[in-house]
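Structure first, sequence second, as always.
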């Protein structure tokens, strides 16, 4: 086994410390009994109880979750379809324009994208609310999904589809039974990326949201402008815990899948 050098160990330690010590401090102070977030006054879970009694934060969290689920699902379907057309559609009229418009949200500043969507919704008379947030998040998330799925389709062995067609499958059956299961990891990755982007978005949602629908990032940003409260610390600690559990679970599932594949390959070799 190759030994790690002192330089690499030091760099790794400093890097992780820079990233995670602020989060650790935030989690610790979420259990602070004092209302002043910077003055420690003992251990307490009081602010977690206050948070779950705060209907404004709970409503914003529920809106954020619904928007993320719906927009990531729509973005996955549209982004996968767009990637399939780009990779399998060959040369067609307007391909360059279509490709440029698809990838434009990747490099376009969020302020410009949010403002343009706001003007679009106003021009067509669509009231701002949950629907406009979902449409906006779907618009920029599908670009990321398309990039992820395109990279997998480019490396896809098309002879597998051809073999399925030779065995009597229709084009749709070949896609559903052969192509989709193989590119499923990329599709799932695109969905997770779209879901995360929707949960994290503040700028675009601030342009497209209305009084009837406020997302959690907007609510937190509005509250922080008046000063950081212990409830925000508690909410941030819960979000960090959810992300940590999700990352660990995903890593364990991925490791288990790899070990299972290695075991199957070993059995096949024997």
């Amino acid at each position: 086994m190759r030994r790690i050098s002192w330089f690499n160990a030091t760099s790794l330690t400093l890097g992780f410390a820079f990233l995670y010590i602020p989060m650790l401090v935030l989690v610790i102070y979420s259990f602070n009994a004092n209302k002043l977030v910077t003055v420690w006054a003992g251990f307490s879970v009081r602010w977690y109880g206050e948070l779950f009694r705060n209907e404004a934060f709970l409503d914003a969290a529920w809106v954020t979750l619904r928007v993320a689920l719906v927009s990531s699902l729509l973005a996955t379907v549209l982004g996968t379809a767009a990637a399939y057309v780009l990779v399998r559609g060959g040369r067609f009229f307007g391909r360059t324009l279509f490709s440029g418009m698809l990838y434009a949200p990747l490099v376009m500043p969020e302020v410009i994208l949010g403002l343009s969507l706001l003007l679009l919704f106003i021009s067509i008379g669509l009231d701002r609310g949950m629907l406009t947030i979902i449409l906006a998040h779907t618009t920029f998330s599908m670009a990321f999904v398309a990039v992820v799925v395109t990279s997998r389709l480019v490396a896809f062995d098309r002879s597998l589809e051809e073999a399925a067609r030779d065995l009597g499958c229709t084009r749709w059956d070949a896609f559903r039974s052969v192509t989709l299961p193989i590119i499923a990891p990329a599709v799932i990755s695109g969905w997770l990326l779209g879901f995360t982007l929707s949960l994290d978005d503040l700028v675009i949602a601030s342009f497209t949201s209305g009084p009837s629908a406020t997302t959690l990032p907007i609510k937190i940003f509005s509250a922080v402008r008046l000063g950081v409260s212990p409830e925000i610390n508690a909410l941030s600690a819960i979000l960090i815990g959810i992300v940590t559990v999700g990352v660990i679970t995903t890593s364990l599932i991925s490791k288990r899948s790899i070990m299972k594949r290695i075991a199957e390959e070993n059995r096949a070799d024997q």
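Margin note: The chain has two domains: 23-53+233-270, 66-227.
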